[in-house]
Amino acid sequence: MAEPDPKSRTRSDYAFFLSYRTRWSDNDQYSHINNSIYYHLFDSIVNAYLIEKCGLDPASSPLIGLVVFSYCNFFSPLSFPQVLDLGLRVNKLGNSSVSYEVGVFEEGKDAPAAVGGYTHVFVGSVSRKSAPMAKETKEGLGKLLNNQLYSLCSATEPIWPCVRRREARSSENSLKMSSDLQWLLLRKNNSFIVKRVPEGPVFSKEPGNLRNLNSFKFSGLANSKTIDVKEQNGSIKIVTRKTKASPQAVGPAYATTSVRPRSGGRRALGVAAGIAKRGYRSDLRTATLARVSALAATQREPKPSPAKKIRGKKAAAFLG
């Protein structure tokens, strides 16, 4: 199969995204981003993915990736102060080498301004000799491999009928997309956004958003792991999405823990803290505890206020 024209790429061709706000120093004397900056962008998204998704620590890993080939195709100029979206895919994956492709998009546009990338060969950090990449690294990179669907088909079978049949048999996998791509599609276009102000935060009211902020961290739409805290029939309910749930599942995809009103605030806080201790969205621990605490406070019966004591002349007149 012939390689597609890089200029025909769109955002849907990439599975992992990273935003980049251009700097004044990125511009050259011609008032556009200098060509050398694009290679800094390639390094940024590739290493971000290796660290976040592949368990590779460049500072301490026994293997490191050395660049043996790089390229970049430029289609339209970019300049400060534009915000860019970088998309990453893997075109080839071997035992010790990988070829990346990076699409550089202006925010809000579907056509790339540039497409480039490079090839990494993994070597020992001390020996500098080629070595097979770690299993976790290869599995992480395999998620970005462009032809992983085609590899399921036999060499003698027509490719597209095979692909369609595989998609029909495994609709769950065909419906999955990365959280980064979902956020890229939803962050400015969803019905839950309730307020837009230039100088302040953007709020959102979707279920599972503990802070009601329109951000990737708190998004109840883009994240595969979410925590929702709500009050229902006098009880505090903590709802989490199961990590292995099918994309089509609705009710069965969620686990609900109920805390009865008589259990008290400590019980509710203990349940909320236990979710983070099990390693489920530990970054949301503070937000979860804050919402549970606020709901528990509303369930407490207010203490009766003591009667005001009459003092001074009013007291003397009353007693007299």
From TrEMBL:
Q: What InterPro entries is this protein classified in?
A: HotDog_dom_sf, Ribosomal_eL28, Ribosomal_eL28/Mak16, Thioestr_dom
- Give the Thioesterase domain ranges: 31-109
- Kindly state a single biological-process term from the GO annotations of this entry: translation
Q: Which GO MF terms does the UniProt record name? A: structural constituent of ribosome
GO CC, sorted alphabetically, is: ribonucleoprotein complex; ribosome
| UniProt entry keywords in alphabetical sequence | Ribonucleoprotein, Ribosomal protein
Keyword Ribonucleoprotein carried by entry = yes
Sequence ranges assigned to domain Ribosomal eL28/Mak16 in this UniProt record: 181-296
For whether the record's keyword set contains Chloroplast, the answer is no
Q: Where is this region: Disordered?
A: 297-320
Q: Which Gene3D superfamilies would you find in this protein's record?
A: 3.30.390.110, Hotdog Thioesterase
Family, according to the entry, reads as follows: Belongs to the eukaryotic ribosomal protein eL28 family.
The name on file for this protein is: Thioesterase domain-containing protein
